[in-house]
Write a structure and sequence with these properties.
Largest sheet: 7 strands, parallel
Bound molecules: 2-acetamido-2-deoxy-beta-D-glucopyranose
Number of helices: 19
Number of strands: 13
CATH superfamily of the largest domain: Glycogen Phosphorylase B
CATH architecture of the largest domain: 3-Layer(aba) Sandwich
Length: about 525
C-alpha cells in the first residue's frame, strides 16, 4: 500500500516536473539545406541533438537526413537538393590533380548557393509548413551559405533568426550583423595567407573584398525576386507584410560560428557572434569496434590515422598514386589505419584499410600519434579536441587556410596533392614523429581549446535560448548596421572639409584680388600725385 502511494506520488511529481520543463520548451526550426558534404550534415545534426537534449521541439529541414529519432523531432526532406550541386567535379582526385583548382568565391558559387536556398524554400513540404498558420516557431536557425534568402522565414514565423556559420569568422557574414573586418589583416575566407601581409597581399585582399561585395550586390536582384516569390504569399496568409529584402537581410539576431581561437586567428567579433567550435563532438567517446580497438591497443609504435574525409572519393584516385601511397605506408614501423572507399588488392601488413572510420573514437585513443587529413574544419577541430598533430593535404575551399593556420600554430605540416605526394608525405611523417615539438604544441592548443567557461554544446543551447528569451536579442545588435558606408568612412566630413577649404581659398583669393587692386589704385594715385 505504502509502496503504491509512493509510486503515485513520484509519478505525480515527475509529471509536474515534466510539464514545467515543457513550458520552457521552444519550437525551433533548423535549416541545413546542403545535400552534399557530410560535414554540413554533421553540424546540422549537432544543432538538432543539442536542442532536443535541452528539451526543445525541433523541425529539421534537412539536405542530409539525420538518423536521430525523438518524438520531439520532425524532419522535412530536401535531399533532392543534391541534384543541383554541380560541385562534384571539385571532389574528384584526377580533376584536382590536373587543375590545381581551389574552390574560390565566385559568381558561380554564389548562384549555386542561391539555387540551393531557393529549391529548399520552394519545396512543397516547406511551402506547406509556411502556409499553415498553425505552424509556429520561437526561433529559426539556418546554415549561412553565401546567400541570405532564408531570412524571410523570420517574417513568416514572426520570430528571430540565427545564422549558423560552418567557417571561421569572415567578412561576408560579419557584415550582416556588424561590419567588414579590415582586409589589411583579416584574410578573405578563401585566402590561405596569414598576417602580416605584404603590400601586394594587402592590395589583393582589398580587391577580394570589393569583388565579393560586387558579386553579392549583382546577385541580390535575383535573390530579391526569389525572396518575394518564396515568402510573400505565406506572410500574407498570416496577416502580415513581407519586409523589404534589403532590410530583412541585416536583421539576423545571432551568428553561431563553428570556429574557435585555438584553431583560428584572433579577430574582433561583434556581441552577437559566438565561436563555439566543438559542439558537434559529444562529451563521451563512443567505444571503438572490437577489431579496431584491438589493432590500436596493440600498436606498439603508435597509430597513424589517414582519412581524406567524406567528400573526396578515393575511388577517383589514380592507381599510380594509390600504389605509391600503399608502398610508402607499408615501409613505416607504425600501424596505419587508412579510410578509403575501395579495398586495394595488395595491402601491407601494418596497414589496415577501413571503409568507415569512427574518426573521433580513433583520435581519442591514446595510441593515435598522427592524423593525415584534408584539413576540413571538423577534422581540425577534432584534432584539437583530442590533441593529435596533423599532416594536412588540403584539396579545396577553406582547407588551405585551415592547414596553413595549423602549420603556423606549430602542430601541423602541409603536403600538397600531386603524383609525388608519397615522397613528400614520407618526409613529413618522419619529421613529425621524430620531433616531439608538434605533439607538445598540439597539447598546448588542446588545453586552450578545452579551457572555456562552458563547453560549446552548452553554449549553443544557451545562446539560442537567450535570443528567444530576449525577443531577438536587440541589445546585442551592432550600431554599425544603422549607418550607411559614407557615414562610417566619414566621407560626409571629408566633403565638408573640402567645401570649407575651397570656400576659404576662394574667399582668400577674392580678398587678395581686392587688396591688390586697392594697392594698385593707391600706387597709381601716389604716382599721379608725384607727377
Ligand atoms: C527584425 O527582427 C525583429 C526581432 O527578431 C523583428 O521584431 C522585426 O520585425 C524584424 N524586422 C525586419 C525588417 O525584418
Amino acid at each position: 500500500m505504502a509502496a503504491a502511494i509512493m509510486k503515485l506520488v513520484t509519478t505525480l511529481l515527475l509529471s509536474t516536473l515534466l510539464t514545467s520543463c515543457v513550458s520552457n520548451a521552444y519550437k525551433v526550426l533548423i535549416v541545413f539545406p546542403l545535400a552534399s558534404g557530410k560535414s554540413h550534415g554533421i553540424l546540422g545534426e549537432a544543432h538538432v541533438t543539442r536542442l532536443l537534449d535541452a528539451g526543445h521541439e525541433v523541425t529539421y529541414i534537412a539536405g542530409i537526413l539525420t538518423k536521430v529519432s525523438s518524438p520531439r523531432l520532425r524532419q522535412i526532406d530536401v535531399t533532392s537538393n543534391a541534384a543541383l550541386s554541380s560541385s562534384g567535379q571539385h571532389l574528384d582526385f584526377k580533376y584536382l590533380l590536373a587543375q590545381k583548382d581551389r574552390l574560390s568565391f565566385s559568381r558561380d558559387l554564389a548562384k549555386l548557393c542561391l539555387l540551393v536556398a531557393n529549391s529548399t524554400l520552394m519545396n512543397d513540404q516547406v511551402q506547406r509548413l509556411m502556409h499553415d498558420p498553425k505552424e509556429q516557431f520561437d526561433v529559426v536557425i539556418v546554415e549561412w551559405l553565401f546567400s541570405e534568402l532564408f531570412v524571410g522565414l523570420a517574417s513568416v514565423f514572426n520570430c528571430p533568426l540565427i545564422w549558423s556559420s560552418s567557417l571561421e569568422p569572415h567578412g561576408k557574414i560579419l557584415s550582416l550583423i556588424d561590419d567588414d573586418p579590415n582586409p589589411a589583416y583579416v584574410p578573405d575566407i578563401m585566402s590561405d595567407i596569414l598576417p602580416p601581409f605584404t603590400f601586394s597581399q594587402r592590395v589583393i585582399e582589398l580587391w577580394k573584398l570589393i569583388k565579393g561585395k560586387y558579386i553579392i550586390w549583382e546577385i541580390s536582384f535575383e535573390a530579391e525576386r526569389m525572396y518575394e516569390l518564396a515568402f510573400a504569399s505565406a506572410v500574407g496568409k498570416r496577416g502580415r507584410k513581407l519586409p523589404p529584402y534589403q532590410e530583412a537581410r541585416y536583421n539576423a539576431s545571432f551568428v553561431l560560428g563553428n570556429s574557435h581561437i585555438s584553431a583560428g586567428q584572433a579577430t574582433r567579433l561583434p556581441q552577437n557572434y559566438a565561436s563555439i567550435a566543438g559542439y558537434h563532438i559529444q562529451e563521451t567517446v563512443k567505444p571503438l569496434p572490437e577489431d579496431l580497438q584491438k589493432i590500436m591497443d596493440n600498436a606498439k609504435n603508435g597509430v597513424i590515422y589517414f582519412s581524406m574525409g567524406s567528400m573526396l572519393q578515393t575511388k577517383t584516385m589514380p592507381d599510380e598514386l594509390k600504389t605509391g601511397l600503399l608502398n610508402m605506408l607499408g615501409g613505416l614501423q607504425h600501424t596505419v589505419i587508412w579510410k578509403i572507399e575501395e579495398i586495394p588488392a595488395k595491402i601491407p601488413k601494418n596497414v589496415h584499410i577501413v571503409t568507415f572510420a569512427p574518426q573521433q573514437s580513433i583520435l581519442a585513443h591514446p595510441n593515435c600519434i598522427l592524423f593525415i587529413t584534408h584539413g576540413g574544419l571538423l577534422s581540425t577541430t577534432e584534432t584539437l579536441h583530442y590533441g593529435v598533430p596533423i599532416i594536412g593535404i588540403p584539396v579545396f575551399g577553406d582547407q588551405f587556410i585551415n592547414v596553413n593556420r595549423a602549420v603556423h600554430k606549430g602542430f601541423a605540416k602541409v603536403v600538397s596533392l600531386g603524383y609525388d605526394t608519397p615522397v613528400h608525405l614520407k618526409a613529413a611523417i618522419d619529421d613529425m614523429l621524430g620531433n616531439p615539438r608538434y605533439r607538445k604544441r598540439v597539447k598546448e592548443l588542446s588545453f586552450i581549446y578545452h579551457d572555456r567557461l562552458v563547453p560549446p554544446g552548452k553554449e549553443l543551447v544557451y545562446r539560442v535560448e537567450h535570443v528567444v528569451k530576449t525577443g531577438g536579442a536587440p541589445h546585442l545588435r551592432s550600431p554599425a548596421l544603422m549607418l550607411p558606408l559614407y557615414q562610417k568612412m566619414y566621407l560626409d566630413l571629408l566633403l565638408v572639409v573640402i567645401v570649407v577649404l575651397y570656400a576659404m581659398s576662394y574667399m582668400f583669393e577674392k580678398l587678395l584680388n581686392k587688396l591688390n587692386t586697392l594697392f594698385r589704385k593707391q600706387k597709381s594715385l601716389g604716382k599721379q600725385k608725384t607727377n
